[in-house]
Specification:
Blueprint: H1 8-21, E1 27-32, H2 39-50, E2 55-60, H3 71-74, H4 82-89, H5 97-107, E3 112-117, H6 124-134, E4 142-148, H7 158-165, E5 170-175, H8 181-188, H9 192-199, H10 203-211, H11 221-229, H12 234-244, E6 249-251, H13 252-258, H14 262-271, E7 275-277, E8 281-284, H15 287-296, H16 299-315, H17 320-330, H18 333-349, H19 353-365, H20 379-391, H21 411-417
Parallel strand pairs: 1-4, 1-5, 2-3, 3-4
Antiparallel strand pairs: 6-8, 7-8
Length: 418
């Protein structure tokens, strides 16, 4: 197991929270810090240490243009009992889902650790679920572990209010600090002074600068990352660029369509510790590497790559929010116009009002491009939708959805059953 320097105090706090949870004295633990500070590394190390002693449920929020409602919980749906898993598979997740999850955590043998990563990207429904779960942790055999970047939580963002709401059950707020010069010296050896000066002790920066060490120091971290990328084989580099276009992680079934034979190209990327994978997903080991690779791709090629991903997502009947994200980046306004209303309605049913408003506003931008079949909204009504939705709080069904919407999302049946 890789040793994480200067994190002993954080691990003591995490283990103390788990010991209390084992006696039905659950709590919320916050792990915060800047990008690259090692939040996920601490979580992964803690998970390895408690394996066999606690039930581990971990999900990730993704940096989509408009987040998927409750997407973080869908990541571990297969670990949940059938009623909860079935609820998460529905286009409109029941409002009772957080209460159902609470009852499940209360009923299982032994303590559970529920990890929600990167909640600074969480949708409104997820933030609401955090409040419901967090305020009821005190008498549960569970720890709710949240990671986020404080610098990306704007003053008016709902997550700030959510964190305040669960303060009474928060047992620890672990603000990860940069590594000291002494710790960097242990890692970088004789090059420690240069590495510490360039990295400021950020563990990811330190790791990348050491990995890219050469005769002359790189002028920036991006150069250090891209220096490693330049040494890759063409197939591996092209795969890396493709995956960099997807926020968070890329599903393997989408990769099978977008880049057949990717499993050979990914081997070099995993050996170089640029990517990591499991049977269902492939992702960058760190978001800063992904950002550096993505920013290096020229706009024209970026648009082509998003188009390739969009076609694959359409074949696997992906979430409309994902389709809209990549269609917008690919310049496919037909798909944006068609899928934005669908994504808006799904967000509305999940009570993710901010996301619903965002999708309705996007749909209004393309009002004149919407198909004009019987039962469709007119261009004028779609332009008015954002204004109407800002004050709308009823659950009455909206007008019918285009029959050409993404297969698998039976909106008419969903509304008739609501």
């Amino acid at each position: 197991m890789v040793d994480l320097l200067e994190r002993d105090q954080e691990f003591r706090a995490l283990h103390a929270a788990l010991r209390d949870a084992a006696h039905a004295r659950g709590s919320v633990v916050l792990v915060t810090g800047e990008p690259g500070i090692g939040k996920s590394a601490v979580v992964e190390r803690f998970g390895a240490e408690v394996a066999g002693r606690a039930r581990w449920l971990r999900g990730f929020c993704d940096d989509l243009a408009t987040p998927r409602p409750l997407g973080v919980f869908r990541d571990f749906s297969e670990e949940l009992p059938q009623p909860l898993a079935d609820a998460l598979r529905q286009p409109s997740v029941p409002a009772s889902f957080p209460s159902m999850l609470l009852e499940h955590l209360r009923s299982v043998d032994g303590p559970s650790v529920l990890v929600l990563e990167d909640v600074h990207w969480a949708d409104q429904a997820t933030v609401d679920a955090v409040v419901v779960l967090g305020r009821r942790m005190a008498d549960l055999p569970a720890v709710l572990l949240l990671t986020y970047r404080p610098g990306e939580v704007d003053p008016g963002q709902p997550l700030r209010a959510a964190i305040a709401a669960v303060r009474g059950t928060t047992s620890a707020h672990l603000e990860l600090a940069p590594l000291s010069s002494a710790a960097v010296a242990r890692l970088a050896g004789p090059d420690a002074e240069r590495v510490f000066a360039l990295s400021g002790g950020n563990p990811f920066f330190v790791t990348e600068l050491i990995a890219g060490r050469g005769d002359s120091p790189p002028p920036s971290l991006a150069d250090a990352v891209m220096g490693r990328v330049a040494q890759l084989e063409d197939a591996s580099r092209e795969l890396l660029e493709l995956i960099s276009m997807v926020p968070g992680r890329m599903a393997t079934d989408v990769l099978d369509i977008a880049e057949p034979g990717w499993s050979l190209a990914v081997e070099q990327l995993e050996r170089r510790q640029l990517l990591t994978s499991d049977p269902r997903h492939v992702r960058f080991r760190h978001a800063l590497t992904q950002a550096a690779v993505r920013s290096s791709v020229l706009p024209g090629r970026r648009r082509v790559l998003h188009g390739t991903i969009l076609q694959a997502l359409q074949e696997v009947r992906a979430d409309p929010a994902e389709l809209v994200h990549h269609a917008e980046a690919a310049g496919d306004t037909d798909v944006v116009a068609e899928q934005s209303p669908v994504a808006a309605r799904l967000a509305r049913v999940a009570e993710s009002h901010r996301e619903a408003f965002s999708h309705f506003r996007r749909a209004s931008d393309f009002a004149d491009r919407l198909p004009r079949r019987t039962g469709h909204r007119s261009g004028r009504s779609w332009r008015a939708a954002p204004t109407w939705w800002a004050g709308q709080r009823t659950r009455s069904p909206p007008s019918p959805v285009p029959s050409s919407c993404a297969p698998g999302w039976d909106i008419r049946r969903r509304w008739s059953a609501a």
